[in-house]
Task: structure prediction
Amino acid sequence: MKIERNKSLKKHNTFGIDVQATEFIKINSEQELTETLFTHKNRNIFILSGGSNMLLTQNLEALVLHIAIKGITTNIQSDSSVLVSANAGENWHDFVQYCINNNFGGLENLSLIPGYVGSAPIQNIGAYGVELKDSFVSCEAIQLTSGIKKHFTKEECNFGYRNSIFKNELKGKYIITKVTFRLTIKDHTLNTSYGAIENALKEKNIISPTIKDISEAVIAIRKSKLPDPKEIGNSGSFFKNPVISSEKFDKLQELHPGIPFYQIDKDNTKIPAGWLIEQSGFKGKRWGDAGVHAKQALVLVNYNNASGQEILELSKKIQKTIKEKFDIVLETEVNII
Ligand code: EPU
Result:
């Protein structure tokens, strides 16, 4: 396998941050992965897949393994469901389109999310009322230190809102190589409850939507709000939507009657961080090449040559302001490296 030295990672992270990796290897198969782990035992290894959920703030003094293992397999289970397995290096959106083209239902609301299949379980990607965990069955992952493969059930992954065991106890310990989903092949359970999807379907006079109709609606909504990383560097939502006590929320609502919210249970309420950031005057603002997207304040952007440090400073400024103004702590959704 070819080792590239002092490799620029600009094209390997959707924020488009120009830092270098000391060494970089593209991994095309599971065998290449285990061989590389064996050959480079005790090295500082950094796993890079689509680079769509990270902010690189410094050069990586590490051996970077870019997981590009491709391949999709299907296994019909009954007349109504199919198990679909995708290798980690498949582009997520292309995989979703593959499912839609084969009339496999379940992932259509997750259309156009940047990144690769292998990193999707790490943060339990979600959008428009659906999360990866809703159709996830299991994944395979290789332990970095031993090169041994482990099968993880859904329960073992311990999924939560933008969270899993791979972001906590097992952070940096396993490399996900394959993910399996159970999808429907008829009588799809459609999730059109999200207001923007309902409106998009109504506008097109679609009464009985197909999974393709939903995917197209989601794509249109995302395109209207979220910047395309190919044009403007970004990592989607930079922060998680904070969950606060309903008691605290009631006080906030008195001051701001129009505040949007999602009631989680009787004690907890989730508030869109985008709203908090917009209320604090950051939406559409720009400092050098670092900025806050004009159509969705939860998305920080690199207009061209911002450094990771500049984006990080902006994010800290936002966190400080939200803490002062609303007494709410915003946690980053993106991994800061
Ligand atoms: N809002 C504002 N101003 C803004 C942005 C949002 O006031 O600039 C308010 C609006 O009232 C809107 C509400 O926030 O009704 C929710 O906004 P939106 O529907 O855009 O969703 P979000 O909560 O900001 C979350 C996910 C997105 C996902 C969308 C749709 C997180 C951190 N983000 O965003 O996921 O696409 O819902 O389901 O949960 C991502 O994780 O990278 C991502 C893009």
Notes: The CA atoms of residues 246 and 267 lie 5 Å apart. The chain has a mean pLDDT of 96. The chain has three domains: 3-67, 72-184, 233-336.
